[in-house]
Backbone:
């Protein structure tokens, strides 16, 4: 089943394998995608569906160094070369729209942009900047209702630009503690107005964005990523988290979105998303359901066989294995990712991982640019 096609009215996938979104920090001047990124995504086009790295819908959302944007004509041209590379190889690709919100530092933002969040409370911890190294997150300005309306419009405009750039759709990043989840999470969203204070209030921002993007490009082209029970970027579980996400998913289903992409980070040591909640969310959503988090071929096949999902997303395995689908079909050894190159500029550890034929004769430990251990940057899966 893992290698069988999946067809919806709007999208036909060659298999049930999804390349998960992974921040790689290879964009160039003005946060513009480049030819190196086109090579990277084109190499991985045998995935049933590629979800790009987090891409900001506005200058204010460019919280990390060298992440791409999708809010001007130059960025559209850069992304168009990428979608053409993927489509030329028979693949499908959607762009993940990620506004970092308070997970940001002013040194990473362009002139005139500012750090925003639901409240004026800095995200715990530090982040990397090219100019100043590791720095504490900058203090955000609490968003007014005018700021919120402007952000919603920005997502819709970026979604329209995504279609201009040739994408098959968009994914709204409402996970991992970025702006949408900052509104969803009761530990972060301390507002007492219509955008906080209750399940309905905390869900409002996410639903307004989903509705605006669906109106802009069609609900059949819009997916969303969620991470209940996630702990990244100062989030964490809260009272009635199950009830809130169930209510959110029911409303998303009414909008007719293409998919819900549910992320469970327990493979990295965080609390698991309860199996009962996963089952309830799947039942509540009348569309594709994607599961992500620590899967290998066997566990992915088991989840599909049990009807727990329609698609399974893989992250690090795709990072080091451009031909992951072929390797899983053949039950072949996988390249080992070089963690020191996750976010560094240039092709090393990005486009130079060998395909299966080129790697013949090499042992599993030796495959890939390096099997170096963790350095000071946070886990790629935490993005």
Residues:
């Amino acid at each position: 089943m893992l290698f069988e096609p999946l067809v919806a009215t709007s999208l036909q996938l060659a298999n049930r394998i999804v390349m998960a979104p992974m921040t790689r920090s290879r964009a160039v001047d003005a946060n513009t995608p480049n030819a190196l990124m086109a090579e990277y995504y084109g190499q991985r086009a045998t995935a049933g569906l590629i979800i790009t790295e987090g891409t900001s819908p506005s200058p204010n959302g460019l919280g990390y160094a060298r992440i791409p944007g999708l809010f001007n004509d130059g960025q559209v041209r850069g992304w168009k070369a990428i979608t053409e590379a993927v489509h030329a190889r028979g693949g499908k690709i959607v762009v993940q729209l990620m506004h970092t919100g308070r997970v940001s530092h002013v040194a990473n933002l362009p002139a005139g942009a500012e750090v925003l969040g639901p409240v004026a409370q800095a995200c715990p911890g530090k982040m990397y900047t090219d100019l100043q190294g590791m720095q504490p997150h900058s203090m955000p300005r609490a968003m007014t209702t005018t700021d919120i309306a402007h952000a919603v419009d920005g997502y819709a405009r970026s979604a329209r630009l995504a279609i201009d750039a040739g994408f098959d759709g968009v994914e709204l990043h409402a996970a991992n503690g970025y702006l949408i989840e900052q509104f969803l999470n009761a530990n972060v969203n301390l507002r007492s107005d219509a955008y906080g204070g209750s399940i309905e209030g905390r869900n409002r921002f996410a639903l307004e964005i989903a509705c605006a993007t669906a109106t802009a490009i069609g609900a059949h082209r819009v997916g969303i990523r969620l991470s209940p029970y996630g702990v990244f970027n100062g989030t964490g579980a809260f009272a009635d988290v199950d009830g809130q996400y169930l209510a959110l998913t029911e409303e998303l289903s009414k909008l007719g979105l293409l998919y819900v992409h549910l992320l469970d980070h327990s493979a990295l040591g965080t609390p698991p998303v309860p199996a009962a909640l996963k089952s309830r969310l799947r039942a509540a959503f009348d569309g594709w359901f994607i599961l992500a988090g620590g899967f290998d071929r066997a566990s992915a096949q088991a989840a599909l066989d049990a009807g727990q999902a329609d698609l399974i997303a893989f992250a690090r395995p795709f990072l080091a294995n451009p031909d992951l689908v072929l390797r899983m079909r053949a039950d072949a050894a996988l390249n080992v990712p070089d963690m020191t190159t996750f976010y560094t500029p240039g092709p090393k550890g990005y486009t130079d991982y060998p395909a299966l034929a080129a790697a013949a004769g090499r042992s599993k430990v030796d495959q890939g640019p390096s099997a170096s251990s963790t350095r000071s940057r946070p886990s790629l899966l935490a993005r």
Observations:
- The chain has one domain: 6-382.
- The CA atoms of residues 267 and 294 lie 5 Å apart.
- The chain has a mean pLDDT of 93.
